[in-house]
Design a protein that fits this description.
- By secondary structure, the chain is α+β, with helices and mostly antiparallel strands.
- It has helices spanning about 25-35, 45-50, 120-125, 125-135, 140-145, 215-230, 330-345, 385, 435-445, 455-460, 470-475, 485, 490-505, 570-580, 595-600, 610-620; strands at about 100, 175-180, 195-200, 245-250, 265-270, 295-305, 310-325, 355, 360, 365-375, 380, 530-535.
- Strands 2, 3, 6, 7, 8, 9, 10 and 11 form an 8-stranded antiparallel beta sheet that branches. Strands 1-12 form a two-stranded antiparallel sheet.
- The longest helix has 17 residues, at about 490-505.
- Residues about 1-30 and about 35-40 have low confidence and may be disordered.
Length: about 625
């Protein structure tokens, strides 16, 4: 029997009854909102220490989405379970065909999906929840952990509130760099209640020259090489690539990266991957679709704040951290996948090394830690069981690229080195597809989320139960809309989902699930009876082409390019002129679409003014 791939999140405590929350009364809700976020004893490690070693849900890495009822008409499974891109060897497309859970996993232990919290949600006012999500709960976490001698794990060392410079580097000098990327499908869309952002940091040697001196230009070259290695799909990892990167000094690489027959000068495209990284990392080989050892990612999950143009709330639901502590070459990676599949075939339940305090590791050299809100909304270290929630998606799953999701979906070049903002990003297709990615998702899932519970998306794009494809196409390359228009919720929905998640936070029962649902879900199995067919094969709805890699053809990604034809010329000014609004004018004119506005904003400061025109002029000289 094929066991369900250990896909996506962490362990949950088994519960046999759905907890009734009718006893929660108005006074409790009011008192929790009245409590100062810093009130009371605050030890972000306490719960993790108290519950050390406790893991009740042995199949926690199976996410709630895997218990979806397909009804033979809806296939959200293709987004994760597919024919992989090497060196990912998890060929798991058959999980679209049949439910294949272990005996333990047949019971859906994510009971929070079925709890009716409407009583609590109804007691939270819009003003209360808006005030709540606007509060900073990250700084106090940093202050509590910095210098704590009893904590051996990752201390969040990025000062988000210091901000990012115009190249996406953190102002605090921590060498974190913000990634702007196309959000992964379904759950991670803002319309479903989550706003995500990601930063990357390479090891110190990658940020230094050969003499050990800090060098931002060397760092940018190494990041560009990594971008080309991780975002370009090709058969068996051989042959040339063609990736637009930010402008870099080719002479620092010492090789002809853009295949123009010479070495030197400023380039913005990599066609030939070098054999090694440069500067202090010149002894590190470049491996396609594999990150170097000690690569780090910092991922925050936030509430959707309708008062912020980029939807990012100050309050964080979660802070997630990953470090690649061990590099496995292609042969070792293949062996790890073979061992994983053998364990599944033999019915061996998931096992991981490490703990909440130091991080939990998978078999592919990655270690993960995370923080989540406590009852008062303060961030605390996740427990052993809660941390395992991450290990499915970041374990063995067909679609991932070296167990990551965001970086392979980075916006090409300099426009992708900014704090996350989906405004101005068109709905580009996945590699090998001929339709926009979101349109493909809507067609195959027949909804805007895996549970088919997002009524707002259904009402907008599925009038009378039929997908309005022409409307969705408006966000495609060349259309008059963008990804934000497709997947941003109305303020009403954003606040409703924030209230639903706040109700979950007050209960702090994340071992039973962390999906903030506004009402109990109907399209989810509480239990799978003996596995068997999903009925999708009978309906002809099995797909083998799910990809993280994206086709950015026709999108403006090089300096000075505004019209998306991959060069900077006078024609670009004709587009830019329609978007010129002046400093601090962040709303596009009626004649300027959001994608064109983003392309005209050459310096990434969310307006189109004479500074952008100066950068465009320099690009065409």
């Amino acid at each position: 029997m094929i066991r369900k791939p250990i896909s996506i999140f962490s362990p949950r405590r088994r519960a046999n009854t759905v907890v009734s929350l009718s006893f929660v009364f108005c006074g409790l809700v009011a008192s929790l909102f009245a409590a100062a976020p810093r009130g009371g004893e605050y030890d972000p490690l306490a719960k993790a220490i108290e519950t050390a070693g406790v893991v009740n849900n042995l199949e926690a890495p199976i996410p709630p989405q895997c218990y979806t009822k397909t009804d033979g008409i809806s296939n959200p499974c293709w987004t994760c379970h597919t024919i992989p891109v090497q060196p990912n060897y998890m060929l798991d497309w058959e999980l679209q065909v049949e439910y294949a859970f272990s005996d333990f996993g047949l019971v859906n232990r994510w009971n929070n999906l079925f709890v009716d919290r409407s009583n609590i949600i109804g007691q939270i006012t819009d003003e209360q929840i808006q005030d709540y999500i606007s509060q900073d709960n990250y700084t106090m976490l940093r202050e509590a952990l910095i210098g704590n001698p009893n904590y051996p794990g990752f201390v969040p060392d990025l000062d988000f509130y210091a901000g990012w410079d115009d190249e996406g580097f953190a102002y605090d000098g921590s060498d974190w760099r913000a990634i702007r990327f196309k959000s992964f499908l379904g759950t991670f869309w803002p319309t479903n209640g989550n706003r995500n952002d990601v930063a990357i940091r390479l090891p110190e040697a990658f940020r230094q020259d050969a003499q050990g001196n800090e060098s931002r230009e060397i760092y940018k070259v190494n990041l560009a090489i990594l971008e080309a290695a991780m975002t370009s799909e090709s058969a068996f990892m051989i042959g040339p690539i063609n990736r637009v990167v930010e402008p870099i000094d080719e002479s620092l690489a010492g090789t002809d990266l853009n295949d123009d027959g010479q070495v030197g000068g400023t380039i913005h495209r990599i066609i030939n991957l070098p054999s090694h990284y440069v500067g202090g990392a010149s002894n590190v080989e470049v491996a396609r679709n594999l990150y170097p050892q000690d690569t780090e990612f910092l991922h925050t999950v936030r509430y959707v704040d309708p008062q912020q143009t980029d939807l990012a709330s100050a309050r964080m639901k979660e802070v997630r951290y990953a470090r690649k502590f061990l590099f496995l070459d292609f042969w070792a990676v293949q062996f790890a996948y073979e061992q994983d599949q053998e364990n599944r075939d033999n019915g061996v339940l998931p096992q991981f090394t490490g703990d909440a305090l130091t991080g939990i590791s998978n078999d592919f050299g990655w270690r993960y830690q995370a923080f989540i809100e406590d009852e008062q909304g303060r961030l605390r270290l996740q427990t052993d069981e809660e941390t395992r929630f991450c290990m499915g998606c970041h374990g063995a799953i067909g679609v991932s690229v070296d167990h990551s999701f965001a970086f392979p979906r980075k916006v090409p070049g300099f426009r992708g080195w900014r704090f996350q903002d989906v405004r101005g990003i068109p709905d580009v297709p996945q590699v090998g597809h001929n339709q926009p990615e979101t349109l493909t998702y809507f067609q195959r899932v027949q909804a805007g989320d895996e549970f088919r519970a997002n009524d707002e998306i259904l009402n907008r794009f599925f009038p009378n139960g039929e997908l309005n494809e022409a409307k969705v196409q408006r966000a495609a390359v060349g259309g008059d809309q963008d990804l934000f228009w497709l997947v941003a919720p109305t303020p009403e929905r954003a606040l409703l989902l924030a209230k639903a998640y706040r109700a979950l936070v007050m209960e702090n029962s994340f071992e039973l699930g962390r999906d903030g649902v506004a009402a109990p879900l109907a399209n989810v199995f509480p239990e799978i009876e003996g596995n068997g067919s999903t009925e999708l094969a009978d309906s002809g709805l099995i797909f083998f082409d799910g990809r993280l890699h994206l086709d950015w053809s026709g999108v403006a990604v090089v300096p000075g390019d505004v019209d998306g034809d991959d060069d900077a010329d006078p024609a670009d000014w004709l587009v830019m002129a329609t978007c010129l609004g002046g400093p601090d004018s962040t709303t596009p004119a009626e004649s300027c679409g959001p994608v064109q506005f983003d392309a005209s904003d050459q310096d990434g400061d969310k307006d189109v003014d004479l500074e952008d025109f100066a950068l465009y002029s320099a690009a065409i000289e």
